[in-house]
Amino acid sequence: MKIKLFICKSNITVICRCLLAVGMLNICNANESTTTMHNKHDTAISNFHSTRAGVKFQRSEQSYTIPEVNLIDQYGNKHSINQLIAKGRPVLINFIFTTCPSICPVLSATFSKFQQKLGKELPAPLLISISIDPEHDTPKQLNAYAKKFHANQNWIFLTGAYESIKEVEKSLNAYRGEKMNHAPLTFLYKAGLKKWIRLEGFTSANDLLLEYQRMLSFKES
Amino acid sequence: MNKIIIIGLCVLIQYIGEANALQSMQIPVSPMQAQKIYREGILPSGEILIASTQKDVQLEGEYAACASCHRRSGMGTSEGQLIIPPITRDRLFEAKVLGRKDRFMFVSKGAQTRPAYNEVRLERAIRQGVDPAGREFSQLMPRYDLSTENMQALIAYVKTLNSDQGIGLTDKEIHFSTIITPNTTTAQEKALLDVLELGIKEKNAGTRHETRRATGAPWVRDWKYEAYRKWVLHVWKLTGPEETWSKQLEQFYTQQPVFAMLSGLIENGSDIIQHFCEQHEMPCLFPNVKMPQIIDTNYYTFYFSNGILLDAKVLAKYLDEKQKKNKNSLQQIVQIYRSSSTGAILAEEFSEQLKAKSAQKYKLMNRIVVEQEKIDAIFWQQIQKKYPDALLAIWLSKKDLNKLDALAETWTSSTAQIIFSSVITPGWAEIIPSSLKANVLAVHQFVPPSIMQRHIINSNDWLEMRRIVSSEQLIQTNAYFTLRLLGKVMMHIRDNFSREYFIELLEHMTEKMLVSSVFPRLTLGPGQRFASKGAYILGFLQPTSPLPEPVSQWIIP
Question: B294 and B177, same structural domain?
Answer without folding.
Answer: yes
